[in-house]
Amino acid sequence: MGTRTRKTFDCVAMKREIQQHLLQEYEASRDQYESYWHFLQETNRRSPALLELRRKLGLAASPTDR
Question: pTM of the full predicted structure?
Fold first, then answer.
């Protein structure tokens, strides 16, 4: 198998876009959360991708995930 010499995406740009999207989502619903951290916790708790990953890894929901 050969090594890839060129990435097909920019990791830093992708990270910045995701962070910007999350910040915009938080700003639109800021009054529903105590802080940005709480918003992120709730967003992660509801994420179908993270729920599936937790299921695959056999990780039970922790009390802070509820």
Answer: 0.63
Interior angle at CA 59, CA 36 and CA 40, nearest 5? 5
Helix axes 11-28, 36-46, angle to 10 degrees: 110
What radius of gyration do the chain's Cα atoms show?
16
If you search the block for the tokens 């990953």, which residue do you land on? 53
| Statement: residue 61 has pLDDT above 70 | no
What pLDDT is recorded for position 16?
A: 94
* Alpha-carbon span 46 to 9, nearest angstrom: 27
Question: Average pLDDT of 11-19?
Answer: 92
List alpha helices for the chain, DSSP H: 11-28, 36-46, 48-57
Tokens of residue 54, six digits: 């937790």
